[in-house]
Amino acid sequence: MTTTTAPSTLIAAGGGALLPAVSIHGVSKAFKLPHRQYHTLKERALHPFTTRTYDLLQAVDDVTVDIAAGEFFGIIGRNGSGKSTLLKCLAGIYDIDAGGLAVRGRLSPFIELGVGFNMELTARDNVMINAIMLGLTRKEARARFDGIIAFAELEEFLDMRLKNYSSGMIVRLAFSVAIQVDAEILLIDEVLAVGDARFQQKCFDEFHRLKREGRTILFVTHDMSAIERFCDRAMLLERGRMIMMGEPATVARRYNELNFGKTIHEASEQVAGQEQASEHRDAFIVDGWFEDTDGTRIPAIAHREWCTACVEVHFNAPLDDPIFGMTLRNDVGATVFATTTALDIGPSGHFGAGETVVVRMRFETWFTQTRYTLTPSIARGGMGADTIDLRADLASLVVHGGNFTTGVVDLPHEFQIERR
């Protein structure tokens, strides 16, 4: 096992080419799970040998990848796939069992809520301590203190102990510190999901800034739209092993296939697959299509005409306020629009077992001319993270006519020139 850290990401190899900012070669990490854990001295005396047996959990299994300096690299996978474990190995929190790691540059980890914070100290003290631990001098930490607090929007809570903070306040403070240090490499785990929508947007704006500055970012998330929006490449992990790496939209689709099954198929395959899988779901998507203003199913529509995306859903069990979602992608797989009933109409109501409904979403086709696909989904209420069914690219629509531009939408607009 080798682990090295160099002072800068911009390190030239012998031939003049730049070395990767992060090198992961054949890395493996396993955890021993004892069959019995002692809670008292009496238990230990009565069962002295039971801890000799254990299960082995292979959290990371022979992962190899090189990440270039300045690359925004996404790591996705289902719960328990080894994403966070891999980041913790890079951060030095875990030792690796096999393989080699090389991190070339100052590292700023933002991996787990509250790690590195002392809950008995105030925000003021924690900011100073963590900024210094992440590589700033005391003078630099003091100079950036006001900026850190302003970004976190915690000016009124500076002298409150962190144990009295909400989880959202802690995550805002931790992220604010992490982005203020002069780190070439940032490790960012999915803890951003704890923040509110406004703060998440601030974080996304920071991602754009960090990307422009050429920082190297390793980003773990379950949000496939964020993967497609920010990442240059993405890697998919399953049971600790890397099963795919490449263009973000392609990897995101493979992730959805792992969760929900393949969703692009001919009618006969679709019916057979639905009959087999639908029996075990509380609800499932039967069909999807596009309609014109007369309610006629259509394969194409003119630019800037009104159109309706339709999804038929059948319920096997009663559900209260499920969230219906629709995503439109263009011909290169980029998401151009996404919405849910939770964002538009709020609670969707009660649906009984055996009931079938059609959900319609009406929109004006401001998109530029190309083919678009509809990906509908249905999830339980609440945060909408518990997806019941999702059908990627279930229906398609060609938008024709209009002006040809390099953008994904052709918004109504006008120019004005004022001479001075």
Describe the structure.
The protein is an alpha/beta fold and 420 residues long. The chain has helices at residues 41-46, 83-90, 123-133, 138-152, 167-180, 197-212, 224-230, 248-260, 267-277, 341-344; strands spanning 2-6, 22-34, 54-67, 72-77, 98-104, 107-110, 185-188, 216-220, 233-238, 241-246, 283-291, 300-302, 306-315, 319-320, 323-329, 335-340, 350-351, 356-364, 370-379, 387-390, 395-400. A hairpin with a 5-residue loop joins strand 15 and strand 16 (335-340). Helix 3 (123-133) packs across helix 4 and helix 3 (123-133) runs parallel beside helix 5. The longest helix has 16 residues, at 197-212. The radius of gyration is 25 Å and the shape is globular. The protein starts with a strand and ends in a 20-residue tail after the last strand. The model is unreliable at 1-16 and 262-276 (pLDDT under 50).
User: How far from one another are the termini?
Assistant: 68 Å
Number of strands: 21
- What is the 3D shape? globular
Q: Output the number of helix runs.
A: 10
| Overall pLDDT metric | 82
Q: Which CATH class of the largest domain is shown?
A: Alpha Beta
Strand line-up in the sheet with most strands: 6-7-8-4-9-10
Return the structural class.
alpha/beta
Q: Please name the CATH topology of the largest domain.
A: Rossmann fold
- Tell me what portion of residues adopts beta-strand conformation: 25-35%
Task: Using the CA coordinates, give the radius of gyration.
Answer: 25 Å
**Full CATH superfamily name of the largest domain:** P-loop containing nucleotide triphosphate hydrolases
